[in-house]
From TrEMBL, chain B:
Membrane-spanning intervals of the chain: 7-30, 68-90, 102-122, 128-148, 155-176, 258-283
Entry membrane topology: Multi-pass membrane protein
Protein name as catalogued: ABC transmembrane type-1 domain-containing protein
GO (cellular component) term, any one: plasma membrane
GO BP of this protein: transmembrane transport
Family named by the database record: Belongs to the binding-protein-dependent transport system permease family.
């Protein structure tokens, strides 16, 4: 008895062969595995833009596809470090923070140098400053994309109701904070239970107390942390806490809780960055305003903390085909057309975006306002400690800052602890220098 | 007929699994501690240099001190309260014992991460239930930022630890008390012994085995505490709630210094094994 009709065997064999070839073709397809931190809400909530751009860019990758994994912004740097140690890095990753940590991965050979792709694609929007921030020992290892800026979000209605003008000098800022405090309104919503928010505030205060040049002398030169300008920044931060500008128990309040305090109208201001613009814009029940904190010290130029924040990086382990596809994909992601998508759908303003472009694009007024003010002082803008310090120093900074603003350490003790950690990092070759 | 050899044969599969998943990783961690690591990548062999670092690591000594405080407080409060409550409950109606025992045990069934989140809300300086309650009863002056202050953070966390452990102590002591021969209590009553006298001279001595077990368990738990601290304070503010496990976690996962994290882990292992050895020696004594 035969189970198959006569003549069907060759047909089935041929069909099997075709199917096998198809499967092989499918399995041979280039797949770029991607980790990124673009969530749908919270910090760096550019998920909708990322989704759209994968759809836009994939057809131009010569058949390659992108396999995306979203890792929360808070945990991605730790996840990536584990992946490096296990030699299991994704082909392409978008992580924070930048320079110093990126250099650490380059140092151990985990990242692919991207100089050839910079030459191939131009990427003119990424200037020498940003290229330097993504370099290690003469090679470029990252493609920075977003620009992070710090500013003071404020509640214009509360300012108006209480007859307080938006400050243009540091003295006016202090007077405004005092006035709010006297009226029983928390001047600055601030929560540091998560340990990292205070680092951004200190980054801002260091720049406004010391200026970019002194910062560079400390971060890239031989000047110690324990200098007069840095001490002024530390004392200023501590005085804000002591003077009651922050809510009671700020070291036990989460970052999101502090933002909620501000968005609910129970605090007049909050000092944070552009990475939370989407949540701020969506959550505010009032017309949101933003201004740049004025210089704390006399003679320091106005400016703000800015940085590339995060960057695209390609694994050294990826095959050449995957590296090529990843580079083509990055080229698409940072193109002018894509930048518009990042701005409009992701509330994220990529490097190279001009204020004129922002005006033309369909961005919220708060986005335009934040970036037009923050990008108005490009020469004076200063460093983000998160992207400049090696991780070993960052971990000391987190704890010591909690002690400083909690009143458990003096400014001198804080700076002394930082100098000790800093010197250890230098001795271990962990310091990133442009 | 069962022989020693056949007994070992029966034990072999589980022993092999134990060696593979417990013994081998311990040896691996021990090996890690002799190398210099950079971002999770092994570098040069550096001998005992990582162990030398321990002496100058202030965070390590602070964390160790906090662990010691935690052990003492955990031994003191949940065990003592558990013993007294169990002794009182043992004389009550069986239904009451069953219900109250179950209620006391509920916190033990809650994962520590969840307990941490719940108590984080209770202690929250903005909307915390504790401050709200204090204000409601006119004790607003006592309200504070419990987990945000250097002088209250560790103690506040220990209260949570005690809350999760207390019910377990009650149940263990209850079971042990119920296994004591009632004739001993009857004889003591006939001799005119008070409740306190019976508790002190009968219950406490006869519960020595349970106390040693709970003490050992509590001490080991106190040394390896991590989840509760991490979800509530991450060791902060500053180093106020830093314990060995959080120090290890930060060194390993956040800094990527696997060598020093392994060294800290070896020290923790030695401490836990020493506590265990001491407790087992006590348990063997008649």
């Amino acid at each position: 008895m035969t189970l198959l009709p006569r003549g069907s065997l060759p047909v089935l064999l041929a069909a099997g062969l075709v199917a096998s070839v198809s499967v092989q073709a499918a399995t041979a397809q280039t797949v770029v595995t991607q980790w990124d931190q673009f969530a749908m809400a919270g910090i760096t909530a550019a998920g909708p833009a990322m989704d759209e751009l994968i759809g836009t860019c994939e057809p131009d990758l010569g058949g390659a596809t992108v396999l995306r994994t979203i890792a929360p912004s808070i945990g991605i740097r730790d996840s990536y470090r584990l992946a490096v140690s296990a030699n299991k890095t994704p082909d392409l990753a978008y992580t924070w923070p930048a320079a110093s940590v990126l250099a650490g991965y380059a140092r151990v050979g985990a990242l692919a140098p991207l100089d050839d792709y910079y030459e191939q694609y131009g990427w003119e929007g990424i200037n020498d400053f940003y290229r330097g921030r993504n370099s290690f020992e003469g090679a470029i290892y990252g493609v920075p994309m977003e620009q992070d800026l710090m500013g003071v979000y404020y509640n214009p209605a509360l300012f108006e109701e209480n007859g307080i003008a938006v400050p243009t000098t540091y003295a006016e800022f202090q007077a405004a904070a005092e006035a709010f405090k006297e009226k029983g309104i928390t001047p600055i919503a601030f929560g540091n239970r998560d340990r990292w928010p205070a680092t951004n505030t200190l980054s801002l205060l260091l720049g406004l107390s010391a200026g970019k040049a002194v910062e560079e002398e400390v971060l890239f030169g031989d000047t110690p942390w324990a200098n007069e300008q840095f001490k002024l920044a530390a004392e200023t931060f501590q005085s804000w806490a002591e003077n009651g500008y922050f809510p009671n128990g700020f070291n036990g309040i989460g970052y999101d809780e502090a933002n909620a305090l501000f968005l609910s109208g129970r605090a007049a201001m909050t000092i944070t960055g552009t990475w939370v613009l989407q949540d701020m814009a969506r959550g505010a029940s009032f017309d949101l305003g933003v201004f740049m904190l004025p210089p704390v010290a006399d003679g320091v130029a106005p400016g703000t903390m800015w940085g590339e924040g995060s960057q695209w990086q390609v694994s050294a382990n990826a095959s050449q085909e995957v590296k090529d596809a990843a580079a083509a994909y990055i080229d698409c992601l940072i193109s002018p057309a894509s930048r518009e998508v990042w701005v409009e759908k992701g509330f994220l303003v990529p490097i190279g975006t001009t204020p004129e472009e922002l005006e033309q694009w369909d961005a919220l007024p708060i986005v335009k306002s934040f970036y037009s003010q923050g990008l108005a002082t490009p020469d004076a803008n200063f460093y983000d400690l998160h992207t400049t310090l090696p991780e070993s120093v960052t971990q000391v900074l987190y704890a010591e800052l909690q002690r400083l603003i909690g009143g458990d350490a003096t400014a001198d003790e804080f700076l002394g602890a930082m100098d000790t950690a800093w010197q250890t990092a230098i001795d271990n070759g962990e310091r990133w220098v442009p | 007929m069962l022989t020693t050899r056949s007994a070992y044969l029966f034990l072999a599969p589980s022993l092999a699994l134990y060696l593979l998943f417990v013994g081998l990783p311990i040896l691996q961690v021990f090996g890690f501690s002799f190398f210099d690591w950079d971002n999770g990548i092994a570098g040069d062999f550096i001998g005992l240099a990582n162990y030398g670092r321990l002496l100058g690591d202030g965070v390590f000594w602070t964390a160790l001190w906090h662990n010691a405080i935690w052990v003492v407080l955990t031994l003191a409060f949940p065990l003592l309260a558990g013993l007294v409550i169990a002794a009182i409950l043992a004389e009550r109606n069986a239904n009451v014992v069953r219900w109250l025992g179950a209620i006391y045990f509920i916190p033990r069934t809650i994962p520590l991460v969840v307990a941490g989140i719940i108590w984080g809300w209770i202690y929250n300086p903005i909307f915390g239930l504790l401050n709200f309650g204090l204000e409601a009863v006119g004790l607003g002056g006592l309200a504070g930022a419990w987990l945000a202050q250097d002088n209250t953070a560790l103690l506040s966390l220990n209260v949570v630890g005690a809350w999760t452990f207390f019910g377990f102590c009650v149940i263990i002591y209850l079971a042990a008390i119920q296994s004591i021969d009632p004739a001993l209590y009857e004889a003591a009553s006939i001799d005119g012994a008070s409740w306190w006298r019976k508790f002190r001279d009968l219950t406490v001595p006869l519960l020595r085995g349970s106390t040693l077990f709970l003490g050992l368990y509590a001490a080991i738990e106190a040394m390896r505490f991590f989840d509760l601290v991490w979800v509530t304070t991450q060791g902060g503010p500053g180093y106020a709630t830093e314990v060995l496990t959080t120090h290890i976690y930060k060194t390993f996962f956040l800094v990527g210094d696997f060598g020093y994290a392994a060294t800290l882990s070896v020290v923790l292992l030695i401490i836990v094994l020493s506590i265990s050895a001491g407790a087992f020696a006590l348990l063997r004594k008649p």
